[in-house]
Here is the input.
Amino acid sequence: MSITELPPVTAPVYERMSEARKAEVVHELCQILGPRYVLHSPYDLTLYEYDASIDRSKPEIVVLPSTTAEVVAIVKIAARYGTPVVPRGAGTGLSGGAIPVYGGIVIAFSRMNRILEVDYTNLRAVVQPGLVNLHLSNALNPQGFCYVPDPSSQRSCTIGGNVGENAGGPHTLIYGVTTNHVLGLEIVTADGEIVEVGGWTYDTPGYDLTGLLIGSEGTLCIVTKIIVRIVHLPETVKTMIAVFDMMDDASNTVSEIIASGVIPAAIEMMDRMILAAVEADSHAGYPIDAAAVLLIEAEGLSESVADQIEQIVNICNKHQARLVRIAANEAERQALWAGRKNAFGAVGRICPEFYVQDGVVPRTKLPYVLGRISEIVEHYGLRVGNVFHAGDGNLHPLILFDSQIPGEVERVRQAGHEILQICAEVGGSITGEHGVGMEKQQEMALIFSDVDLRTMQQVRMAWNPSQLFNPGKLFPLPGRCVEVKQL
Amino acid sequence: MSITELPPVTAPVYERMSEARKAEVVHELCQILGPRYVLHSPYDLTLYEYDASIDRSKPEIVVLPSTTAEVVAIVKIAARYGTPVVPRGAGTGLSGGAIPVYGGIVIAFSRMNRILEVDYTNLRAVVQPGLVNLHLSNALNPQGFCYVPDPSSQRSCTIGGNVGENAGGPHTLIYGVTTNHVLGLEIVTADGEIVEVGGWTYDTPGYDLTGLLIGSEGTLCIVTKIIVRIVHLPETVKTMIAVFDMMDDASNTVSEIIASGVIPAAIEMMDRMILAAVEADSHAGYPIDAAAVLLIEAEGLSESVADQIEQIVNICNKHQARLVRIAANEAERQALWAGRKNAFGAVGRICPEFYVQDGVVPRTKLPYVLGRISEIVEHYGLRVGNVFHAGDGNLHPLILFDSQIPGEVERVRQAGHEILQICAEVGGSITGEHGVGMEKQQEMALIFSDVDLRTMQQVRMAWNPSQLFNPGKLFPLPGRCVEVKQL
Here is the structure.
């Protein structure tokens, strides 16, 4: 039968459980986990109704398993009662991936947070999904190693969450995203089977299910163990800022650096609004009157880094950088990065509410798209700041707003939607690293045809026919009804 | 329903067509393609009954389409008649991926061999599946760019075939395999839909179907267009050989180079038997009395390469290399590589028939596994040569044999099977880059559990429920019956 002849995959809408039913489920879960690790009072559940996006929805039960066997038991109980299951790392996601749209059971992985094995010779580590991203590198650094993917939330986000969303970070530019650093997974399927996909080596035979599952946002399976690549720390790291009076000069510098064949470890861009916020917050030494600053990092062998830095400085100067400054020592370097990594928090000083968009465009389109973003946001009477992975063309406009003003939330959403339309129009993508979740379901149709989406949904049906795993995510829905979080 | 409760996915066995039926199908295909591009005489079909593996099976019809629309039409005709469809690049595959086990229609992509687009600024190219791998880099080199994956067969193999098998090559060590260099595909599904997966950017949202399809060996879809990454040519490339009197010293050198944090672009190893064959064939300057030679390449910025080479030389010397020689110029460098890349052909001078195995082991297990390979092959009264991607732990033992000796082919297969058992035992994989095809279906069970394999088969059923795409491949079969090719 043709995909187009198949009935459309309907997204089921799950009812919340009756109190009696819920008590039964809680009782069964307590038998497995002990009552301490089964949360169900309204007070306890409040913490789990939101992530870092603007949506929210309360789970009915939260469980905190400590073993894969417990996860299997939870999945089987949920399947028996037909209640949804939503995995959750640290709740730092920006697209609503961990929000239980239809209630059900949230599996919080905070207790499954151990490093199970490190093999320094073969450059592998095996970790549990609840491990905080930065904790892995912290454990590896003294031996001279690290785990590469470094989302800005790395001090709190978990590697399991990173796998679910295929997270990126500043160093994506040279090292790729999470999928490039994960070789194998232990997963629990919708029917409670434990399956191992991928493995210790690079190119395991058969279908690349590891690749398929990474970034599947909890809709296909529950991940219980992760085999990651680790790498040697670079011999030398040099970090610099280049200050520009014109945004376009900064954008063109980025294009020319990459086109010249130099691929730095990271190229981040911050605009005037963000610089003011960051500097007020962290005093990292960023100029507050510039139009844009590039934060550029080169790493590798000392000689190679010196050579790269020289080329980068020349290109910056050619594009009218008014100042190029290389961090003189590790403290200065850390201060520059702290400013960048805390940028979202720093914006909180200017405005209590903001909405982060995430799109990707070809680097050569940066000047055009940044201009269009300003126009769109202005049209809706809003303000925007830009802080993003410029080397990848991965934009993060932060739209400031005040939800007390009637209609403002809707205007923010509309502006966000139009920004993604521009990204799609110029041949880019509607998300770089934050995922689709609840936020960008409708926008999937901007870059995928009906047949493309139906093909993906057939894959979902093969894995998870009842759609109990993270229902109501990833694919366009006819309509949805959840609260918007008051920040 | 649980995966284990589902009826096992049965591999259909297709009957060959009656002459009348075949004439009908040929007629329909001629309407679409013109008679020139529909081959069906026994003479014409002979060329398409084998690849570079030891199996063979004749197709019933071979078609040579020139457009995606023609591929759609072919797939729809095949579906209507219930006859298998097998895509074929250059037939250089080593695991029988392009052999039509049950006859049916072979789609040969030799006419869809164009470079459709090159975007030097954003480092992308769009190509057709029949493009010969090396032709892409040849086209890019004058502008200072190249396409990285370089299988040893790159002078004849096609990028479509590379996608089907997720091909590697010597430079996999630092740059990864085909899946790391392909960003998007245009495919034709089993029901004749044209679907685009992935795209121009790195991290498209939704399921990573590009990753799933790469390496799916023609069992899920027919690829008609490929978006690849291109890269700048490195500023400097240095190539050296290190000569050892003991195999273990060479193996330990490999482990220590990687463990030291230097990741060269390639580390290839050749043993005494291979060296003799290569030197007799190409006079590249390899010593014929050594136990093992490492061919090591470093590339990047000049200063970095100089530094790497110095560290590598020190490690080689520490492990009793009796000679380390750096290619003095490009001609010498090319000669060393020509020797390595023609090694399989050179072995043909020593022995008319050989069987190439392909397995992966952790680098630290190389001395143990190489020892075990010798023992196994000796046990069966056979001879073996080793030429392989040592940096990846990706072995390629070549077992020499003579199919005129009764029972010899069976002994070769048995030795090959036992070698893969060792690879699996030490935590490796049954294939590094040559695929599963018809050759390693049974060995899939060495590294995947029943549930793992059932999970993969469910994915296949979702894409291709009638299993007309390349049937009889990839998964263990109860039994099979094909001829063994006389080399």
About this structure: The mean pLDDT of chain B is 91. Residues 1 and 413 of chain B are 39 Å apart (CA to CA).
